[in-house]
Amino acid sequence: TLPGPRPSAAPPTRRLPNQPQPWRRHPCGCATDARGMPEVRVCVIGAGAGGLTTIKQLRDHKITNIDCFEKDSDVGGIFNYGKGKNGVYDNATLTISNYLMAFSDFPPKGHRFHWHHTEYKEYLQRYARAFGLERHISLSTKVLTVEGEPGRWHVVVEGADGKAVDKGFYDYVAVCSGTHQAANQPKIPGLETFTGRVMHSSSYKNNADFVGMDCVCVGLGESGADIVREVSDVANSTVLALRSFPYLIPRLIRPFHDNPLGCPSDAFTSHLRHDLLIVPMRHYQKFTHFLNRLMCTLAALMYFLMPWLGRDSKLDEKDAFNQDMTAGFIDLRTPYSPMVAKLIYSFCNLSGQQERGQKFACKNVMFVPNIVQGKIATNVSGIKCVEEGCVVFNDGSRARCNCIIFCTGYRDEFPFLKGNIGNTGVALAVPEGNVRRLYKHVFHPDVGTSMAWIGFVRPSTGGIPACAEMSARYFALLVAGERTLPKNFADLTAADFELDTRYFCLSADVKTLVGYKDWMDSMAELVGCEVKLWKYLLHPRLFVRLCVGSLVPSQYRLSGPGSLPVLSKATILSLPVAASRGQSLDEAWRSWLRHLRLRRMWANDE
């Protein structure tokens, strides 16, 4: 049901050039589209990657009455670098390569490599300019409150002048504020009386302030891996404090696999590899899944017999960090050595998984050589307490310390969501603070289509922006009335919650975690852009690269709503298959053993 008459929109606090034309008015008082029909009004919160692609997907479906509010002075979200703000640090290089970080409707060109944070920020700016997204964005504008009921959300913002502005009512709200808003700092006994320096990684920029200090770095995400390495290069002593061993994936895949093409490790993810390792079998029991598995096996055979279908004769001279490909690096500025390889294997074996997809994978091993060289000591027993001048671990050992750096991630918080959902007693918030309680991490069971959380899906391998784009595509179809949520979506949400909680039990704190192919394929079915591999049998090069090549987002633009078949095919064909012929054939064989229940890949494989 459309809401009643709305107050006129207040003047924007700050608009970028090329504002949209003023609304036309329907006799009922609401805005109308070009056909004279009531036009929906959409609020987008945040102009990072999630917010930008949400605007783009809405515009693709002729939904143009969009207001996007961004609290920073530029688009880019977490990639807006600033000395005094939460965000990226000086030397941050993305752990996901460019083709998997890019949106499917704006793919990069050239070889696969890892963007520096400044390069990715430039990509987002180009994306906004290319599709005219700026006209919808109010910069330096913070959302203060969102309250109301489904289909009638009242929004109040604060402009750069600090004054509150009532923006009226919106039919739909897309929450794209990102997962890096509230730092998660554990409560440790004795920390409140510790007189040394205590900081969270969100405020880290470089290692200049840590020269000669005794540091304890707590936690190891991908940013933490950079930070502990940089700090250990200049500190007097550095201890890496963990509660469990990490599962490590070098960004250049060595020593796990040969890498003659110098590809990033995520180039080895494919339909075939995910089908073998990183999808819950319960989700892959339909006939279409059996047929796709058959197609992947056929593609592996074709690639084995005719390698030119998967690789071109021309090889790049640079690897995925633009380093000399022949030098054998395993990561950025990280040369291979037997001791480094042994330590990586040791950490992985002790992590509790053997390529099971049940734990978040840290795709950064730049810190490992500093452990080998003695610059970093590790303790995996967890911290018991903090005393003056030292940290005490659960195994009884102590580490001298005058600086503690928490690399412990973030909490998902939405302080602008106020009150209850309409007249119900249900709070307008993510249930239990856990995005797994949302349908596909996007839709609240008690709200439905009129509010979407976009950008709160973190794949174990793959890029968050690609998942945000898929969420936005589905949201846009719902707003346009071209799709509806499943009638039993609350029950489906509960079932997915139970399965994902068990499946990713080794990373229980990472609530946003999903399997990339598993989640993207399920969303593609909802959108109507699922990849039907058998359709491309008569195009052998495309068929082979689709099945055993990289799982790039472009494959979800081959058909369906918003399809870009020419661009998608060109992008897929431009990328050689990273896996060797023998590796692909072996993965096909093991996939059949797994799915026919002839071999269990791990305990509780479901």
Structure description:
This protein is an alpha/beta fold and 606 residues long. Helices cover 27% and strands 16% of the residues. The protein is built from 14 helices and 27 strands. The protein has a five-stranded parallel β-sheet with strand order 5-4-3-9-25, with helices on one face. The longest helix has 19 residues, at 287-305. It is globular and about 65 Å long. The two termini are 41 Å apart.
Could you name the key traits of this structure?
five-stranded parallel β-sheet, 606 residues, 16% strand, disordered N terminus
- Uncertain residue ranges: 1-29
* Structural Rg: 25 Å
Q: Would you count the extended β strands for me? A: 27
The number of helices is 14
| Residue fraction in strands | 15-25%
Average of pLDDT: 89
Strand order within the widest sheet?
5-4-3-9-25
Compact description:
By secondary structure, the chain is of the alpha/beta class. It is built from 14 helices and 27 strands.
